[in-house]
Amino acid sequence: MIKVGVTGALGKMGKEVIKAVYNANDTELVMAVDIFEEGSDIGSVVLGKETGVKIETDLIKAIQTKKPDVIIDFTQPKTIYEHVTDYINNNVKSVIGTTGLTSEQINKIKEMSEKNNTGCIIAPNFSTGAVLLMMLSQIAAKYFDNAEIIELHHNQKKDAPSGTAIKTAQLMAEAKNSFTLGNCAETETIKGSRGGISEADIHIHSVRMPGYIASQEVIFGAPGQIFKIKHDTMDRSCYMAGVLLAVRYLYENNTFVYGLDNLMK
After folding, report:
1. Please, what is the end-to-end C-alpha distance for the chain in angstroms?
2. What are the domain boundaries of the chain?
3. What is the sign of the dihedral through the CA atoms of 25, 27, 30 and 36?
4. Catalytic residue (one of 153, 203, 205, 231)
5. Which end of the chain is more exposed for a tag (fewer CB within 10 A), N or C?
6. pTM of the full predicted structure?
7. What string of DSSP letters covers 112-134?
8. 2-122+236-264 has CATH 3.30.2350.10 classification
């Protein structure tokens, strides 16, 4: 059995992770960390039945006493870099679903992971459908010279653009240096109306609105045609197959991986 810890256990994603880990045949929930409900049984709060796993607030103490094989982290952008550093320094593998890490931070985490021989997977999105969108966008990028990305999330998401949009742009940028062929010189009468400019001049437009969970559309254009790839998340349970895939991979490997697409090829 793979012993799994969950950080951010009472968040919307954290609760789904708790359910997935508890119900999987090859994983055992051994640790639950959150800033709320200290001392409560995580099962009573999330599953409606006791599991014997108490919610803890001291992350380092929890790691050292519960000794999980893998930790799954869905917390906050402002704390995630510190968390990953703690995981690696304590030689525990981690699956990171929290977005908001900068490219510089991701590179430093990669260096730490390789130096300490402690596996880490950082994935902007764990939905297999969303990952396929990224992979298909990478293929389509070879055949179109113009493209933009629209990503839509709930209005409690704290970072923009989404990690999925950033990763999509990075994959597309491997095909060419710019996706604005033939665009005229522009003047924004309202600053930011054309979105943020990412890799390869790809414009990313972020929408934050109650009612959404997550949605992304990549629009490719060429003379006489428009090609769109879109993925909608209807329920957070769609992420769990990808999360468990990452956990199982890390249990057998000590490598650093950025993006679930590397496990789905």
Report:
1. 26
2. 2-122+236-264, 128-233
3. negative
4. 153
5. C
6. 0.85
7. HHHHHT--EEE-S---HHHHHHH
8. no
C-alpha distances in angstroms, 35 versus 49, 76, 211, 244? Answer: 21, 12, 26, 24
Work out the mean pLDDT of the chain and round it to a whole number: 97
pLDDT in tens, 171-226: 999 999 999 999 999 999 999 999 999 999 999 999 999 999 999 999 999 999 99
* Residue 153 known to be catalytic: yes
Residue 157 annotated among the catalytic residues of the structure: yes
Of the listed 157, 203, 205, 231, which one is catalytic?
Answer: 157
Give tens-digit pLDDT for 214-263: 999 999 999 999 999 999 999 999 999 999 999 999 999 999 999 999 99
3-state DSSP assignment of residue 223 = coil
Q: Which residue has 């039945």 as its token pair?
A: 49
Fold of 128-233: Dihydrodipicolinate Reductase; domain 2 (3.30.360)
